[in-house]
């Protein structure tokens, strides 16, 4: 029994020593890895400050070319910018060097990250920050804004009334309900200034998901018979018969209108806030889905039915569109040049009128 006890004690002591050695090894490895990361951070710091200096010099050169500065004034500003960036490098490298010395001097896993300012939360923008209004992340990723930003992007949302122009018929005689037939559009658009020194004309392009709805009137519903689609009376009390056509399109517009130039020391921007804008263009894309939704009553019982099929709608869609806007709100019109239903005896073209919001 004593022999067994001695063996167990010796085994426990051996495992304890091995565990302690392993812990020391892990701590040393952790410290070594942190030192390597800090050495890389020193390289990043120098690269960041050089990039910032390059942008400042670029801004000074632009002002010099425009005659806003003399050669002497430009040289003075460049020297001041270079001095500031050199001091920034010196101070930031000193902070990193101190962290490295702390890790070298302490065998344990010294927590130098506690209270570290690399991770920041910023609301609002500054001359040396990115253009994101809200930023959460590593400070080195919060890069300064560009001197001249010719391309911006925004979220596009539109909705309103939808109907169809039928060959040989007036819009007033449409078999589709005006109030119940609606469209919805959602997408993303980029806007690029066409001319270098003027913002009067912009090219706007992107992608959108358009959903065009047509609600049949007079207790009728859509029927597909081979390659023909037509309206037919429903055998029961029909509450709703709505055809929804979903298209993925790629709109392109030329946008015109005045803008205000905002100039700062390190950058400039053109703003169209509270300005009148007109956009003219078109779109092209393809059908991604068609379905009919029916709601009806049979012997006092309510029923719902969804029919997913092509209904002979056009696979490729294209059309013209335009908008009149003040600030981010616009009156929006789009018209499909492609027929709603392909290979039909009577041609129908979708038309939509509503509001469009371009949210920066």
TrEMBL record:
Coiled coil ranges (UniProt) are 79-106
Q: Where is the signal peptide?
A: 1-22
Is this entry keyworded Coiled coil?
Answer: yes
Which keywords, in A-to-Z order, does the entry hold?
Coiled coil, Signal
Please state what the protein is called.
Answer: Outer membrane protein beta-barrel domain-containing protein
Species whose genome carries this gene: Aestuariibaculum marinum
